[in-house]
């Protein structure tokens, strides 16, 4: 029974989550177990309280195993953008005669792009596009016959320090096999429709205290950048500037409506144990917009690093749990960037929230990989 399910670990900037599930009907999921635990998070490529990371992961894993009713032995781990590096390369292979492209031929072709990087481990190699000898492009050329194949591939490397620390933790928790993947790549391929990835699409994920900007095309990323700002900083600003508790700031953040044109006498009300607190709408909105301005500046810097002529025309999508829930935030960011922006979220009726984009992207990827591995295994058996 356990073999039909996959398990994923999503390491966010405010909590770690474990999800156990399998595919359902009509591209849905059957969730067997779930567990999560809050922690201090990370920023600038480092965990803030690394000594507590093991107990946090253990708590999330234990809860998921209790829900699922079995012990997890294989875990897909999503590596956040802050610990990843994306490199794109163009490679070519020539054949003496027309050759049928098989999975093995394609893998050998892609291996030409591999290179060792100090302190980093290659975790994925995906095609942006493949061009055959007739000039036609094929995202999946398996089965095609050609004398030449030219490909642009996207390579994602992860920091060895991240992998080493997570490996040590998971080994003590009884995990026998770990598969590392890029959270940003899995998320982008899941929440963006194929037509939004044919040319290129840009996905902005604003989290709790970290955010990322990824350009996706085909099956890979053309660019991946991150910065240490998010929705948590907005709550911290509200708490500090208005002299209220962090829990009150969290309540206030949920009430913010940036599209309002308030007068000096308009207030947000925060219910409390004693009296209800009144916060001037104008002041609260200005605090939120000031932090969003800082986030937009970082996004613009990330976009400028994608030095392509088409950068100004790539559709932008916003996801993550940091600011998507603030009413008017998407439109404010769009105005600041001078671009149209659409919200991106899981295409599921009950789970269509931007905060679920990352972990469900991991689950979707893990399920597809396991299905692919089963098909490959069966094919090898039939050849015997």
UniProtKB/TrEMBL annotation:
InterPro entries xref list: ATPase_NBD (IPR043129), FtsA/MreB (IPR050696), SHS2_FtsA (IPR003494)
GO terms (BP aspect): cell division
Domain SHS2: 6-191
Domain of life assignment: Bacteria
Protein name: Rod shape-determining protein
Organism: Candidatus Caccopulliclostridium gallistercoris
Species classification: Bacteria, Bacillati, Bacillota, Clostridia, Candidatus Caccopulliclostridium
